[in-house]
Amino acid sequence: MMLPLVGAFVADSFLGRYRTIIAASIIYVLGLGLLTLSALIPPLCSSSDCENTNNKTLCSSNYMVQVVVFYFSLYLVAIGQGGHKPCAQAFGADQFDGQYPEECRARSSFFNWWYFGSCAGAIFTVTVLSYIQDNLSWGLGFGIPCIFMVAALVVFLLGTKTYRYSSKRDDRSALVRIGRVFVAAVRNWRTPPPAVALEEETRGGTLPHQSVEQFKFLSRALLAPEGSKESEDMCSISEVEEAKACLSLVPIWVTSLMYAIVFSQPPTFFTKQGATMDRSVTPGLNIPAASLQSLIGITTVLTIPIYDRVFVPITRAFTRKPAGITVLQRIGIGMFLSALSMVSAALVETRRLKTAVEYGLVDKPNMTIPMSIRWLIPQYALFGVADVFTMVGLQEFFYNQVPIELKSVGLSLYLSIFGVGSFLSGFLVSTVDKATRGDGRDSWFANNLNHGHLDYFYWLLAGLSAIELVAYLYFTKSYIYNK
């Protein structure tokens, strides 16, 4: 969660996005290369040598070296990804000038196809690379991503002379400017409102970005601190506007956390549901329960072209907006669909528990419940469509609504939603588990799912998602877009 923020801060404050992408890509390649070597290099001691008491210490030492190389390569990959992920996407979006309607539409489409590529790559990894690693070679399975990463870096460098590079607005960092506004507002907290209104009027009217009533305490930064006559101690209207715009992102970030909590369920409880059900596709062929996770990516890959080429043009004809609907409307639709996904999961789980009772399988957790795993498809598919709206919408929103120098930081804030959401999901599960067990009762998450009540947990998530959606709509109603 922290690595993308660190990488984005380095990109936006020191190296720049272009240089950070190159540096992160090199680190990424080194990590993948070492990971490949750790899988290809055979152990220095054979199993027969290790049986010799005199060689046990040497074999243990060699094993530890390989383990250290393996984990060191994983950390390198994580660092490379932390710098590459937010900066590459921000740099790609920088190639479109949002001041022109045509390029504004193209930028919105860019976020759609970026996520399309990410999901397509994930599907390739889950299917092709997993097969190669399990059946051919782990070294080859790690080596292919390394080769692709090298090729991607070469292609990126070939386009160096054609890129559009963003420039800083002034010599001061955007973080310094924003921090300066907050410090000045705190120092002037005793300033009476009439004095602030007079200063705004003197400078040419109210702030152009936000209404006076929204975060009005920051307008105190327009005045010099008490006892100071220096104009340098006063913040400009544009700096106060910038600080208000960034502060207005906080409610959107907070109300998106529930979506991230729901996002954590498919790899865990959805899979646990499927493991108890009839997973046969044809006689003699059973699919792994975890393989249904690929349905989210497949649904996303199928939905994005429809959204970009059908939904957007149709809605654009009615709304006259470049992207058809606003980005906040797009995020809200995805939140609604994720809540429906939880409702679907709860209904299916209720039916699964009833089927277990009907066939006398409640106390037989190892027995397959005669209910097809296909019942889970709607909840996976709904979540895949929800991703098209909310995931892509959050990327575009946090890119567009931060100062130009902080675009990478904006995208890392989007990533942090899912990092924090994952922690909150674990905390929520632990809390519910402790609250529902005791007095001889099984918790909602009993090891034997037939004794648990996963359906109650899904209903809880659906209810919390509904509350989240109401709060989100409340805050978005007063949100003013940063133009």
UniProtKB/TrEMBL annotation:
Membrane-topology annotation of the record: Multi-pass membrane protein
Gene3D superfamilies for this protein: MFS general substrate transporter like domains
Pfam families: PTR2
Transmembrane region(s): 21-41, 61-79, 113-132, 138-159, 246-265, 285-307, 327-348, 380-399, 411-432, 456-475
Subcellular location: Membrane
Keywords recorded for this protein, A-Z: Membrane, Transmembrane, Transmembrane helix
Main location: membrane
Family: Belongs to the major facilitator superfamily. Proton-dependent oligopeptide transporter (POT/PTR) (TC 2.A.17) family.
Protein name (database record): Protein NRT1/ PTR FAMILY 5.10-like
Organism listed in the record: Xanthoceras sorbifolium
Taxonomic path: Eukaryota, Viridiplantae, Streptophyta, Embryophyta, Tracheophyta
